[in-house]
Amino acid sequence: MRVDVITIFPEYLAPLDLSLVGKARTAGTLDVSVHDLRTWTADVHRTVDDTPYGGGPGMVMRPEPWSKALAETRRPDSLLVVPSPVGARFTQADAAELASRPHLIFACGRYEGIDQRVLDEAADLMPVREVSLGDYVLFGGEVAVLVIMEAVTRLLPGVLGNAASLTEESHSAGLLEAPVFTKPATWDGRAVPEVLRSGDHGRIARWRREQSLLRTASRRPDMLAAYPDELLDKRDRAA
Ligand code: 6GU
């Protein structure tokens, strides 16, 4: 997968060199290039923003540098991702969609935003996804790109050792995962639940299912409400 990130803070994307994302880059699964938007400015001050038409606080990013940046990075198979507090909530399904694409372009704007005409023009040329991480406001899209790229990279073929960890994990299954434990069996006076040490795989699976439902009910009632009714059996309802 090829990824181009356009930002006025290229240093902010340095963590893309680390950890599994960095490893995927080294392995050749991922080819990331970070570009300074100011490369595409023409004036001596390398201006990228201006005051908003209609008034109001803050600044808006001017269309000209963005238009040039997108023209230069775009391929016939590109998908444009614009992190923004006014985007649709980014989900695991979105991560899977992005992971299936050959080329992503990330446009990092400051939070007052990019001139709308840039997004309108881009939408005529390629698919565009405006995505938000949640209901709070960040200074810009850079940290969102790190989050999105981590969610996407995990789904690329060959990045995770154990494919089962992808199918069983929270959010792809529609429920939160059960709590996990490792050795020692008793630590600080706290014992690992007996069932997990029983070796009875049927009981363990049932316990995990129950914990998963209880957790989801208390922490994410919205997820439980959206969970397909036909996937709940009699034992689930009893839990
Ligand atoms: Cl993706 N960008 C910005 N600027 N703020 C956000 C966000 C994204 N998601 C939540 N808040």
UniProtKB/TrEMBL annotation:
S-adenosyl-L-methionine binds at residues 109, 133-138. NCBIfam families: PRK00026.1, trmD. It is found in: Cytoplasm. It catalyses: guanosine(37) in tRNA + S-adenosyl-L-methionine = N(1)-methylguanosine(37) in tRNA + S-adenosyl-L-homocysteine + H(+). CDD domains: TrmD-like. SUPFAM superfamilies: alpha/beta knot. Gene3D superfamilies: 3.40.1280.10, tRNA(m1g37)methyltransferase, domain 2 (1.10.1270.20). GO terms for biological process: tRNA N1-guanine methylation. Keywords: Cytoplasm, Methyltransferase, S-adenosyl-L-methionine, Transferase, tRNA processing. Its main location: cytoplasm. Belongs to the RNA methyltransferase TrmD family. Specifically methylates guanosine-37 in various tRNAs. Homodimer. GO terms for cellular component: cytosol. This is tRNA (guanine-N(1)-)-methyltransferase. GO terms for molecular function: tRNA (guanine(37)-N1)-methyltransferase activity. The lineage of its organism: Bacteria, Bacillati, Actinomycetota, Actinomycetes, Micromonosporales. Its EC number is 2.1.1.228. Residues 1-224 form the tRNA methyltransferase TRMD/TRM10-type domain.
